[in-house]
User: Fold this.
Amino acid sequence: MLINRRFLLRTGAPALAAASLLPAPVFAAEQKKAGARDITVRDVNGLAVFGGAGCNVVALPGPEGALLVDGGRAVNAAVLLKAVSGALKTKRVHTLINTHWHPEQVGCNEAVGKDGGVIVAHEVTRLYLGRDSHSALYEGVIKAVPPKARPTKTTFNTGSLEFAGETVEYRYLPAAHTNGDLFVHFPKHNVIAAGGPVSAVRWPVMDYLNGAFMHGFVRSYEILAAVVKPDTIVVPADGPTLTGADIVRQKDMYEALFKQLFAHFNKGFGPKDVVEARPLKDYEAQFGDPAQFLEAAYRSIQLATIPY
Assistant:
């Protein structure tokens, strides 16, 4: 018989204690302030992608202001918004979509909210931004943001909006990187802003203490693979872009890993055993050491599926 992961987390089952065995968080609490020269901008199929503020920020100009996907760290908000205004010739941000609630994504929320902008996110993101949180990926406490910085429009699954004469679509990626991930699709530009679950050059990180688990991670790649075309440009939370064909290849890789992890689970493996088995050794040259990703992915399975 299987115990539902929500029941497990409510009752504090022993597997939760294993979380404390994870190595040091991958993100220190450093707050690097970007200067004007640190902010970069490049054209991606007619959209502007800004780098240097803490994450990739996708932008589309409109007559009433700009639409942004994600906003970098709060410490970089002023210089990022100035760069957006200068590059797009807009005076304000009309709409901001948060792909999830981590600090690298929501740094512009307060400035946009105070200026009357619309902030769109998954409902889970709104809830997390309203309370103090802990994460295996960060040191210390992630503090709640002020009310003006919280999303004003939320979804549980899908949504869309009209902006600058075109349709912008967004959809839930279930339990992929957090439990409140969205991807944003710009069909006219053949571009997807995929957020935290995707990377071209390193293994993604899974905030498994805040909703990410391997079942949802794989399902999210299946969703993305069904939406992309081979030449779709996919913008991850950070780093270089991918193509739709890359997403399909990664989906196949993660589906195969998922099956391997369950085989290890049924053999009674622990997280260190999985890391030592090197199930991703064929991809280490491209993405680097997968130890942290494997450990988080496997712990998420342990938290989600406890036999008795």
